[in-house]
Specification:
Helix content is 62%, strand content 0%. The protein has 222 residues and is an all-alpha fold. It binds heme C (2 copies).
Length: 222
């Protein structure tokens, strides 16, 4: 029977649980709101030169940290770290949002992106979108030709005939082969650090050899 004044641990637990759930909901909400806001700020900067200037300055500053892994100007020197140079800014912001709210799982990236302000996120996406990829002259091989044939079956529908992507889809031309291999295998698994329905459907037929060929082909595109 309920007696007021008596310590009731389950009531306390329920209350704590509810508060924690609310806090989580609030944090998740504000984090994804931040990435939506960053997209809006980026759009606004197209018609607001003063804002574009502010974002450019913030972006260049923030990129000094990113350069440690993503390379100077966003061309990565590490095979499993993606290039950010010449990537579509809207896609970059979408992925930063996914890291921040944990849909795309990487603890380091999550902590870093969560610590960035809305305008820093918008600025850094704008900065990388404006950089050129600084890659060596590509090497052609039978593996590259095999990847080209696989690409032409399907991938071009979303990523474009040259892999340059669009507002909605990632640029994958020139992307690091090791990173592409790892990413396609993750999508194919359909669970784990990176999940996407469209990409799960488009990778489930691929063998490891197909993935290796696709990665070689994409890395050879400029
Ligand atoms: C310590 C190394 C490190 C630093 C510093 C770093 N990143 Fe990353 N970043 C990674 C790795 C590794 C991945 C790939 C993660 C994965 O797919 O699991 C990644 C992925 C990304 C992606 C996804 C790219 C894509 O093609 O999907 C974005 C966007 C990104 N980082 C932005 C940034 C920004 C902006 C900064 C600086 C503020 C930054 N990163 C700093 C290691 C780093
Ligand atoms: C129906 C549209 C569609 C098709 C077809 C498609 N993709 Fe994708 N792809 C996407 C979307 C959407 C994403 C971003 C998903 C996310 O947020 O993780 C993506 C992401 C990727 C990425 C990660 C890019 C990065 O920078 O991390 C790679 C690599 C990729 N796709 C390669 C391919 C290849 C190779 C094929 C063909 C076998 C293909 N895609 C077919 C829609 C598509």
């Amino acid at each position: 029977m309920y007696q007021s004044g008596k310590f009731q641990p389950w009531v306390v637990l329920m209350r704590v649980g509810r508060v924690a759930a609310c806090a989580l909901w609030w944090v998740a909400g504000s984090v994804s709101a931040q990435s939506t806001d960053a997209q809006a700020r980026l759009k606004e900067s197209a018609t607001n030169p003063a804002l574009a200037q502010t974002l450019a300055t913030l972006g260049r500053k923030a990129a000094a940290v990113c350069a440690n892994c993503h390379g100077e100007g966003g061309t990565s020197a590490l095979p499993t770290v993606p290039n950010l140079a010449a990537q579509n800014p809207a896609y970059l912001l979408e992925q930063m949002g996914q890291f921040a709210d944990g849909r795309r799982k990487n603890e380091f990236m999550q902590g870093m992106i969560k610590a960035m302000k809305v305008d820093e996120r918008a600025g850094v996406a704008m900065y990388y979108g404006a950089q050129k990829l600084a890659l060596p002259v590509p090497v052609h091989s039978p593996l590259v030709d095999q990847g080209k044939a696989l690409y032409a079956r399907n991938c071009f529908r979303c990523h474009g005939t040259d892999g340059l992507g669009s507002e909605a889809f990632a640029r994958i031309a020139g992307q690091q082969a090791g990173y592409v291999t790892q990413t396609l295998k993750r999508y194919r698994t359909g669970s784990g650090p990176r999940v996407n329905e469209l990409m799960a459907a488009n990778t489930k037929q691929l063998s490891d050899g197909d993935i290796q060929a696709l990665a070689a082909y994409l890395a050879s595109l400029r």
